[in-house]
Structure formats: structure tokens, C-alpha cells
Amino acid sequence: MIDMLKALAEENRFQIIKLLSEKSLCVCEIEVKLKIPQNLVSHHLSVLKKAGLITDCRCGKNNFYTLNKQSFNKLNRVLIKIGEPNENISTGIGMCDLQETARNS
């Protein structure tokens, strides 16, 4: 999970993910759309693939890259869970408040 978030934290990789959310693309198409060199695109794709965010398949001379929907669904579930109310921390009483109350008692 941490590797996924780290991979997404870089601007070019985030832009690549946005492009791939629309359709599968090859390196040359990503290079043109982002206006960055092919070797840099390849590097970013490698990081995204290692993090499990994308997959690739060879078609002729080109590799086409696609979002790994399962990974994004997993990431989405975790982020939603983090954003849900938690009874243990949603009381509005911080630890400092509790310690102050205990001292005054």
C-alpha cells in the first residue's frame, strides 16, 4: 500500500495514471501527451508497475500499459476506511485535554 502511495506522489506518474484511466497507451503515446523523454516515461512506468498500479502487454513492437483496477479498488477501500468515523478518535477530546482534566481533579 505504501509503495502505491509513494508511486502516485510523483507528478508525472500521477499524470500517467490519469491518462491510463481513459485508455491503454504505449510509451510513445504517453511521451507525446506528457512532453517528457521516452527514457523518463519508461522509468515512471517501471515504478508504477513495480507498485502494482499498472500492467503491460506486448502488441507487436509496443508494450501497452493499463491500470490495474484490482490494485486501485484495494487502495480505494483502504482510503475510504481511513476516512470513516472512528469512535475512538472522533470524540473531539484530545489527549492533552484528558491530561489537563486529570491534573485538575
CATH architecture designation: Orthogonal Bundle
Separation, N- and C-terminal Cα atoms: 44 Å
How many runs of DSSP E, i.e. beta strands? 3
CATH fold descriptor: Arc Repressor Mutant, subunit A
- Class from secondary-structure proportions: alpha+beta
Strand order of the largest sheet: 1-3-2
Report on this model:
There is one protein chain. Helix 1 (2-8) packs antiparallel against helix 4 (38-50) and helix 3 (27-34) packs across helix 4. The chain is 60% helix and 13% strand. The longest helix is centred in the C-terminal third of the chain and has 15 residues, at 69-83. The N and C termini lie far apart (44 Å). The chain has 105 residues and is α+β, with helices and mostly antiparallel strands. The protein has a three-stranded antiparallel beta sheet with strand order 1-3-2. Strand 2 (54-59) and strand 3 form a beta hairpin. It has a single domain, classed as Orthogonal Bundle (Arc Repressor Mutant, subunit A), CATH 1.10.10. It contains six helices and three strands.
